[in-house]
# Entry
Amino acid sequence: MSKVAIITGATGGLGKEFTRVINSYGDIDEIWIVGRNQEKLNKLKKAYKKTVPICADLSDDGLEIIKEKIKAEKPNVRLLINNAGIGYMGEYEKMDSKEVGNFCNINCTAPAVLISVVLPYMHEGAGILNVSSASSFQPNPYLALYSASKIFVKNLSRALYCELKPRKITVTAVCPGWIDTEMLPKEMNGKKVKYTGMISARSVVKNALVDNRKGKDMSTPGWFSKYFRVYSKLTPTKLVMRQWTRIVKKYI
Ligand SMILES: NC(=O)c1ccc[n+]([C@@H]2O[C@H](COP(=O)([O-])OP(=O)(O)OC[C@H]3O[C@@H](n4cnc5c(N)ncnc54)[C@H](OP(=O)(O)O)[C@@H]3O)[C@@H](O)[C@H]2O)c1
# Structure
């Protein structure tokens, strides 16, 4: 039975780095890389021998494609990395209802469903990494749906950490601050955007995999995420939201 790692959003900044690192793991035979962009998936396939591309749109019927493959092949899933995610900075009312639905499908439904599909194929020592964000530490106006989706992912992850501990499956919520990937626009509203404490995908992935292996329920790479986690706990939420709004408003 093949020992498999599944990575969603494998074609993006963080996903590519997860793929690169896991490709060198001796105890993984195949990496199922999930993304929408076939060209990018093909490039990864060429670069990393163990990869098996799965072209799937997680806002649509992509989950069914992955579900069918898992049911047909019954792999031994050693790692599930729920990494695919989209972000939107701006006024909530500017998103139409279809965009809102798709957003929730990608950021919330996909990780929740994939965990339930994969769990019967996981055994002792397996790991689940759910990529949340430091945006999950408080609600963020003008990033409202994104921060709500990341709160969903973090809370699901932490609760499952407890539920799955007896099965010796570690569930880790990965909560980085800003990461230098294509997700972040360099400029908004004609202004260069400043990302305080931005870190590399390499450092996020390294920390996340080590934390999961160490049995941790949370991974907070970089000083910003660690600081913000504590700050948002100690400061009234209304004040944190006001401070955030003041910063973000100039870009909208
Ligand atoms: N960048 C940051 O500052 C930051 C900070 C904290 C947390 N995060 C989280 O980190 C994760 C990875 O983000 P990233 O920075 O690497 O972003 P990215 O470079 O934009 O990559 C996003 C990935 O998600 C995939 N994706 C988007 N829509 C999809 C859909 N409908 N169906 C299937 N896949 C879809 C993309 O695949 P295709 O290209 O093939 O469409 C891509 O592989 C996300 O969950 C994000 O929220 C990012």
The domain at 3-249 is CATH 3.40.50.720 (Rossmann fold). Residues 97-118 form the longest helix (22 residues).
